[in-house]
Amino acid sequence: MAVVIPDRSASDVTGEADGTYDILILDGTYKQSLTSARSLGLAGLRVAVGESVPHYHPDRGAASWRSRHCARAVALPDYNADQAAYVETIVSFVRDHQVRVVLPTGDANIVMLAPHRKRFTDLGCTLAVVSDTAFEIANDKVRTLEVADKLGIAYPKSIPVTDAQDLPAVAAEFGYPFVLKPTISWTGEVKDRVSPIEVVNETEAVAATTRYLATGCEVLAQQWVPGRREGVTLLLADDEVLGLCGAVAHRTVPPLGGVSVMRESIAVPEDILDASINLAKTIGLDGPCEVEWRRDADGRPLLMEVNARLAGTLENANRSGVDFPLLVWQWATKQPIQPVLTYRTGVRTRWLSGELQWLRANISQPGRPDTMSASRAVWAFLWEFVRTRHYDYLDHSDLWPALGELLPLGMIPKKRSHKS
After folding, report:
1. Does an H or E element contain 261, and which?
2. Does residue 313 form part of some domain?
3. Residue 227: φ, ψ to 5°
4. What is the full per-residue pLDDT of the chain (420 aa) written as tens digits?
């Protein structure tokens, strides 16, 4: 028997015309947006969640829309086709519904909306992102590494790549495999965030470089680092740390690095704690951020990047006792904040459909960096069912997002599209 997900009518999805909302959370397909909607809904806030038309599935919608904590689902225009219409729709929604805070959780929305910060302020609304200057540095890997250099923070050996002709020199310096990274993750030329990739030969290196340059960004080649991935999520305000949580990403998709699919809360190691805070403060980050590290073969931490927003590991922090969405709400609305600097360690959270993608990558692409044999991958995947209690999307009091994420499309009725 097919499981039926409620088909919200126009009045349910779009809300009453004169309804007001405390917060509009954007990037409704992202895991951290769902976590934020649940956190703030449980805090008693009226939450609207928006997403751009091409980014949610026409049958599934956005996962956050299915949450009982989403008071209104807002289908927004395609920002790749018309950024101006996208921004105007958000501004109009804020004005018409007296929204107090707009919270983007993805780089693209921050890039698009930051230049309009004053328009939101004039409407009595706060755009809950870091300052423009700080974001420009954090969003550019070259500029971030320049700050790290001045602070004496180590990072992988790096070489700028301006075109494919630079690749032989990179290969001579690093050997294969090495990593190619876009210097910024979103330029507006493609609809999705652009992620780093490992290359194992010249053909792959040329193809990746050509693809990155076509998005309008610069390219950075880095020596591949094989150790474990650690991250520090912070909330800073007026140079004070008000929220803190550490995590290790045991597995990611793609396997080299990207979205964490299996992570665990840890006490932040001393050799990255002070460096993370110092780097964030020097950049000028006031608000939420995550500083990512990876250890080399000798166990030395090397800086990977800084995400000047709520990160994909947000569910792990919340399950560990650090409610970053609530802290961000308090920060954005200038309320007193009680710092949360201690939390439970050893809390494991898992994104199951992401783990399936990780498993598929290990089986289909054996021998690549950060992969393991098919037998080890299958064992790791199955063993996790024994020791992991918490899953992204899954909340026993709010099941529809998890069902929408995991059930086959044929078991989910098609939803009508509702535009704000």
Report:
1. strand 259-266
2. yes
3. -80, -175
4. 222 223 333 333 344 445 899 999 999 999 999 999 999 999 999 999 999 988 877 767 898 999 999 999 999 999 989 999 999 999 999 999 999 999 999 999 999 999 999 999 999 999 999 999 999 999 999 999 999 999 999 999 999 999 999 999 999 999 999 999 988 876 665 556 678 889 999 999 999 999 888 888 889 999 999 999 999 999 999 999 999 999 999 999 989 888 899 999 999 999 999 999 999 999 999 999 999 999 999 999 999 999 999 999 999 999 999 999 999 999 999 999 999 999 999 999 999 999 999 999 999 988 899 999 999 999 999 999 999 999 999 999 999 999 877 765 444 444 433 344
Instruction: Determine the structural domain holding residue 358 and report its residue range.
Output: 229-391
Mapped onto helix, strand or coil, the DSSP state of residue 187 is coil
Residues 371 and 240 in one domain: yes
Neighbouring C-beta atoms of residue 203, cutoff 10 Å: 9
Same domain, 174 and 35: no
**191 and 245 inside one domain:** no
- pTM as predicted: 0.91
Tell me the helices (H) and strands (E) count for the chain, helix number first. Answer: 15, 16
Could you give the C-alpha distances from 271 to 149, 233, 296, in angstroms and in order?
A: 16, 15, 13
Q: Note whether 345 and 237 are same-domain residues.
A: yes
Residue 255 CA to residue 196 CA, distance in Å, equals 11
Say yes or no: 210 and 239 in one domain: no
DSSP lists the bridge partners of residue 127 as: 102
Looking up residue 186, the CATH number of its domain turns out to be 3.30.1490.20
Whether 414 maps to a domain, the answer reads no
